[in-house]
Amino acid sequence: MKKRVLAAFHQGLSEAGYVEGMNIAVEYRWAFGEYEKLPALAADLVRRNVVVIAALGGDVSARAPGEATSTIPIVFGATSDVVKAGLVKSLSKPEGNATGFTLLTSDMESKRLGLLHDLLPKADLVGVLYDPNFAPAVDQLAALEKAANTIALRLDVLSAGNDRDLNADLQLLRNHRVSALLLTAAPYFDT
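^ thats the sequence. predicted structure below, dont judge the formating
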């Protein structure tokens, strides 16, 4: 996933006339799902006086540079309602130094479960993996449980916020013989 994101990032820069190493330098920072590292990573970029910060790891990645600077432009990729998340004042007039896009994936969990049910109507037990370190997970799980009750679907919910937990949970889900697997929207699962 990281390679695809970087390729798309470089393609976008190229289309705007920028080529890394020729007329632009890029400072990369990765937290790999360890969200507590984000404030220090953002502060480091601010100390380096970068021209712009691209925060593409969801709401939590966009929040850290917003707390570190009010002057350096921040371009974010978010997963939920950016106004509710406090990233901008409003969609029509974001104000401040942050702008970006949202996929609203955190708000679409119940729709994703419904689609999975439409694709596999005989599935009776669906495994759900969520990242407990990702703040929107609480709302995601509530929406999933409500949707599952509506369609009389059982969920086997497990949390994974690191590779060790993910590997263990995947084995548990195999042992529980789930019919399908739904990964909630979270930057950790993207990487």
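Residues 2-103 form a domain with the Rossmann fold fold (CATH 3.40.50.2300).
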